[in-house]
Amino acid sequence: MPAAALSFVCGAIGPGVAADPPGWQLRYVAPNDRSGHAMAYDGARGVTLLIGGAGDEGTWQWTGQAWALQTIPGPGSRTGHAIAYDSDRQVVVLFGGGGLGDTWEWDGSSWWLRATSGPSPRSGQAMAYDAIRQVTVLFGGSVEQYPHENGETWEWDGVAWVLRGVSGPDPRYGHAMAYDASRSVTVLFGGNRSGFQTWEWDGDSWTLRATFGPSAREEHAMVYDSWRQRIVMFGGTRIGPTLGDTWEWDGNLWTQVSAIGPTARWGHAMAFDTARGVTVLFGGFDGGLALADTWAWDGGAWTLRAEQPSLFNSPTFVYEEARGAAIMVGWRGGFPEYPKTWSWDGSSWRAVGVGLAYSDHATAYDIQRQVTVLHGGRQEQYTYGITFEWDGKEWRSRGTSGPGPRFDHAMAYDLRRGVCVLFGGFLDLTDAETGDTWTWDGTTWTQVAVTGPRPRRGHAMAYDRAREVVVLFGGRFSAGPIPTYLDDTWEWDGSAWTQVAGGGPGARADHALAYDAARGVVILHGGSSGPNESWEWNGRRWARRSRTGPQAIGSHVMTYDSNRQRTVLFAPLPTGGGVGTWELSRFLLGDFDEDADVDLTDFVFFQACYNGSNNPPHPSRCPPGIDADLDGDGDVDLADFLIFQQNFTGSL
Ligand SMILES: [Ca+2]
Ligand SMILES: [Ca+2]
Ligand SMILES: [Ca+2]
Ligand SMILES: [Ca+2]
Q1: Which CATH class is domain 32-306?
Q2: What is the pLDDT of residues 224-272, one digit of tens each?
Q3: Which ligand is nearest to the CA of 630?
Q4: What is the pLDDT of residues 136-153, one digit of tens each?
Q5: What residues have a C-beta under 5 A from ligand 3, the ion?
Q6: 419-442 pLDDT tens trace
Q7: In the chain, is it the N or the C terminus that has fewer CB atoms within a 10 Å radius of its CB?
Q8: Beta strand 230-237 pairing with 221-225
Q9: Residue 642: count of CB within 10 angstroms of its CB
């Protein structure tokens, strides 16, 4: 059939499998761990706004159910700033932080720089919006001039800052303020000096209301719960312990309430969600690590609303079929470290146990014994060779016999032969990459092959369940100061390594591989080159399937959820200071111009490459880089046309 004869009626195209849109779908985003950020509830938009606290410029919004990110230019990365929601003008006002003295407003879609005069540059000030007098009240902060503590009271009416010439609390920073609408006063508590004091500002004067109640503290957070008409305060620190207590102030008395809730922390932020009647808390610093958990307090109990892994140093991700969970483990770096083991169920993350503090280790899931096996890895300059197994509850050491201390190696579980296969890595013993192959049967490590891929690190492996081989791709080695990247594909059949077809993804390391059991292909994503590219290996050839996937330059991990038939990928977001979780059920095949549709423009490419069964794609007409062999059997024929037709979306 001549190519020109290919034609079809768009209306006749079936919907195909419509369960999930094709391509990578962003399923979950959340801010990274942080402290020194600020939060306010935006009543007009019904979301809690979070800004700053980490090295990013993202404006985060908590909907009550999920986090969303808006990467909109604005105040930029800063800590120690203060924000308050002006309910009359329906804007969030931000002042200072990071030694700055600028005033910004967020109107729900953009940040506007509103003033550069007013209070001097400072950090650690507090702000609250006085809804009766319609001004944002600012007190104190840490200023540049010695002795740094400031005791000024300022008010912002949306046009200008006014310094109120009044006496009041001692100069301080690290205090917190909230506006009590039922009594029309701004309440101040704590700070780095006289941190046990409770003050109230009525617009004319400050009154010291209490010197008893919560212990002295700074870097705590405080909101006004308008549903229950009281001030809620949580955490903070004072030379000595980090605090995790919840207190409420009703205008007369402080009462300590529920003891079970967020762990002790300081530098966190809170806002009162007036639509849902809960105080929302995010992040902070627990004395060792910054946190990324989202909590809600309804006056009776704290509820953990969201948690997710923060950025790890080279973690691993495996799918545990028996438990129906994708498990991630890794090390964040820094000490002290309280590692966690994380689980993704398709909609949310949760910490399911204590983790292991190794980066650059290797893992595989042994489906017969129902354990995840982890080997090696490193902590800073120390390299380890311990084998651990995770049974869904805890990690148990299985000893140090077998492959020596190493990192940047890879493992896959060979279902046919019932062993974990390990290859390569950077070997501590020889201070070089290694090319040894080992198997672990649950009891014993055995070194199995002497010839195979050249020594390397940063490669990836996956087990092809239909073809019963372990697939290995890429990696790098360092003969000399400049690393050499590899683009070779190997398969291990249980007795020997065989190098298979080239011509696939470019040379790279720190990419990820996962076997898609529903479609019988190994998926590759990202790595040190082609960070957004996805490829598929079907046992005969590589095909590039997408160049618009998640940006993944090596800090990403990927696994295949065989129960839900989706490939899951976890990676840092390229902007905004957060992490993302993506899922893929299938690629959009036939989108040759990569504009996220399959339309007549793509059909022109298909037609040009069409060359009939058992022939290579048309040698002169098919444009370079266009891969129209959609079933991967080497030709572009009617079988490929059928796939093209099934994927046809029309112009979108
Ligand atoms: Ca297209
Ligand atoms: Ca064919
Ligand atoms: Ca074909
Ligand atoms: Ca198009």
Answers
A1: mainly beta
A2: 999 999 999 999 998 878 999 999 999 999 999 987 899 999 999 999 9
A3: 3
A4: 999 999 999 899 999 999
A5: 629, 631, 633, 635, 640
A6: 999 999 999 888 899 999 999 999
A7: C
A8: antiparallel
A9: 12
